[in-house]
Amino acid sequence: QVQLVESGGGLVQPGGSLRLSCAASGTIFSITAMAWYRQAPGKQRELVAIIFSGGGTHSADSVKGRFTISRDNAKNTVYLQMNSLNPEDTAVYYCNVLSMGSNYWGPGTQVTVSS
Predict the structure, then answer these.
(1) What is the pLDDT of residue 112?
(2) What are the backbone dihedrals phi and psi of residue 66, each rounded to the nearest 5 degrees, phi first?
(3) Which residues pair with 113 in a beta bridge?
(4) What per-residue confidence (pLDDT) applies to 28?
């Protein structure tokens, strides 16, 4: 079983930055990928960015050039650096880990971009 704890969300003004962190703990044998998803009110959950065990990454077009996903393998932690935030980025952000064919989700952290 894998437990995920997210941190770093909050309220930020348009144009500002936030850094989200997600630490994985528990029985971790092999992590295939770690990712960030988000869900805005009234919308479906969507993939924001993903980083694979080999280091390759993929980001949604809406965040390319603004968000960067990274990972500390020694700490089983994934980060999401978010720059140039705008109100459309307001959502609950969820950490996701794919390990041994199973998906694990964090409880989510709220990000609100507003002046």
Answers:
(1) 98
(2) -120, -35
(3) 12
(4) 78
